[in-house]
Amino acid sequence: MIHEILPHKLSNEFRVQDPKPTDFLIRYNGSKTLLKKNDEGYVIPQVGELLAVEGKTLADFEGHYLFSIDDTAFFLDDSLAGKTDSAASAAPEGFEFMGNRTFRGMNPVERMGGATAAHIAHWESLNKFCGKCGNVTIRGDHERSIICPKCGNIVYPRISPVVIVAVRNGDKLLMAHNIDNPNPRLFLISGFVEIGESLEQAVHREVMEEAGLRVKNIRYFGSQPWPFSDSLIAGFTAELDGDDTIHMQKEELSEALWVKREDIPEYETDVSISCCLIENFRRGFTINP
Ligand SMILES: [Zn+2]
Q1: Span 204-213, mean pLDDT?
Q2: Residue in 190, 198, 187 with CA at minimum distance from that of residue 267
Q3: 97 and 50 assigned to the same domain
Q4: 29 lies in which domain range?
Q5: Ligand 1 centroid to 138 CA: how many Å?
Q6: Which residues is 192 bridged to in the sheet?
Q7: Residue 73 shares a structural domain with residue 15
Q8: 137 Cα–ligand 1 center, Å
Q9: Distance between Cα 148 and ligand 1 center (Å)
Q10: What pLDDT, in 10s, does the model give residues 116-147?
């Protein structure tokens, strides 16, 4: 899964740190991140190379420390966020502003680091002004927070909980395709947790809403950060309880069906818990995450 980057290690405790030329720089314009194009695709630019391209030095550096993976730090420059003119999307030659999904094609360290940095950048970009009094906010200096110096309002990082569930019916798995997912493959039922419900209650509700089915024997499988939707995903397995007739929610899904184990193709398990849950079923519910 995306956060499993051994032997590398994410150090995301809050601290203030100066950049070195080989650190990564996330330049975020409010929706996209400036990436460097090479023959194989895109990589995250280093602080030094982006400064060099722009004829600047470390003394000109605009950005702040986010976290490190091993000895390489990730810095965020969000000075373009909130600007709507063409400057916000102007990229030096060889660089391009790209959406979050681009990180998925990178190596495990840049994939995890880049997507996580973009998650933080998105949160910061949404909180430039206080939601309570409208004053300009500042970043906290001893924890990851955004503070309003006028009214004292404190905003912590936005992490939205999501549940995902592999519902089993004998040797069949409930699979679905979300209409918003550009990937045409079948995945699992999932959804955001509502205020006022537990993770297990969210599983019951989502399966009922999206497929019209009841489930029982809900078991926790594992969790993963999912920075692409500012989320933390909790994965579960469950069994069908009663009638297996699917009533698909057409507003959310384009497909929902029972798929026999032998008809499920192999899924790569290096990024998403969804694929791990599907593989877990395909291999006979014997493999733990
Ligand atoms: Zn305020």
Answers
A1: 97
A2: 187
A3: yes
A4: 10-126
A5: 10
A6: 162
A7: yes
A8: 7
A9: 5
A10: 999 999 999 999 999 999 999 999 999 999 99
